[in-house]
Design a protein that fits this description.
Radius of gyration: 22 Å
Number of domains: 2
Strand content: 15-25%
Distance between the termini: 72 Å
């Protein structure tokens, strides 16, 4: 018995006299269903985060990737420290920046990923503009009230019916993932006859006869970021080297997407197990209104509207108020 105790005690004694080993750095990414996260696909497949971290003296980094249906669940995961880097539309960042600024949970933007419009498509021949919407219609959005599609619809409604009526169509919206919304719209058997969607699904919808576009978000808010990444200030402060590696990986991934969009499209197809043709997906990510850039666009327009509507308690004076200083030199808006 004494011998067994000695054997058990030996590892504990050795651990006590060894210097404490630093924990392996970890970074956990969250993304959503769409073609707005190509840099993440590239980063994951080419291990760019690991590459830049190793070059900066962090040879071992645990990198994980998870996918969410919408911004609500993703931001909940961020606040609970289940993920570190969250990505989504402008309203998601605005909401959590305004809610957490100056607190221990403070959230700021890391960078943009892409600028591209969201399209509100319908199969209803009776609908020519959003003014024709009524109680018999249902609009699928990734998340009601808080997704960029839902807020854009509010902005368009305010322009048409006055700011006091910006929620006029909120009751028509239903939360649905973009793949499910596309199936519902194209089937003709669902009560959902409109989908405010994301690429490439919105382009896929328009391939079917009878589907047409009611609204282009660029016509409402001007050119704007479609996807951005954000994180807690605490993560950046606690992991300065890892954060620098993240920015370096994002820059390289953005360059790689722009240099070979077909290769990026192929990675996206593989990750999502999509059966869409490679030529079609390449065309979608190369469209004239699409740009793959770390420069935020249109963030103040959305933040100002959300503040005026009472969705958030404060708005930034300039776009860089919502972002970490590393990207402040970019020509954002």
């Amino acid at each position: 018995m004494l011998k067994r105790r000695a054997l058990l005690a030996a590892p504990l004694a050795l651990a006590a006299i060894r210097p404490a080993c630093a924990a392996v750095p970890e970074i956990r990414f969250a993304r959503q269903f769409s073609m707005g996260y190509l840099q993440f696909n590239v980063m994951e497949h080419h291990k760019l985060l690991e590459k830049h971290a190793a070059a900066m003296g962090l040879p071992d980094v645990n990198v994980t990737w998870v996918t969410f249906n919408g911004p609500d669940a993703m931001n909940t995961a961020l606040l609970s420290d289940s993920v570190d880097i969250v990505s989504g539309g402008i309203p998601g960042l605005v909401t959590f920046w305004a809610r957490t600024i100056g607190t221990s949970q403070e959230v700021r933007g890391v960078a943009a990923l892409s600028s591209q419009p969201c399209l509100l498509n319908t199969r209803s021949a009776a609908l020519r503009t959003i003014a024709d919407l009524g109680a018999g219609h249902r609009i699928a959005v990734p998340s009601v009230k808080v997704s960029i599609q839902a807020v854009t619809l509010q902005m368009a409604t305010a322009k048409l019916f006055g700011r006091e009526n910006y929620t006029k169509f909120d009751d028509l919206t239903v939360a649905m993932s973009p793949p499910d919304a596309t199936i519902a719209l194209l089937s003709g058997n669902s009560e959902v006859d409109c989908a405010f969607s994301v690429p490439p699904y919105q382009a896929q919808q328009l391939q079917k006869d009878g589907i047409h576009t009611l609204l282009n978000s660029f016509d409402v808010a001007g050119p704007h970021s479609f996807t951005l990444a954000w994180a807690k200030a605490r993560f950046r402060n606690d992991n300065p080297v890892l954060y620098r590696a993240l920015l370096a990986a994002l820059r390289e991934a953005t360059e790689m997407v722009n240099a070979d969009k077909r290769a990026a499209a192929s990675l996206w197809l593989g990750d999502t197990h999509s059966k869409l043709p490679l030529d079609f997906v390449t065309e979608v990510i190369s469209a004239p209104q699409v740009s793959w850039t770390m420069t935020p666009q249109g963030t103040v327009n959305y933040a100002s509207f959300m503040h005026d509507a009472g969705s958030v308690k404060q708005a930034p004076k300039i776009w860089s108020d919502m972002f970490f200083p590393e990207v402040a030199e970019l020509a954002g808006s």
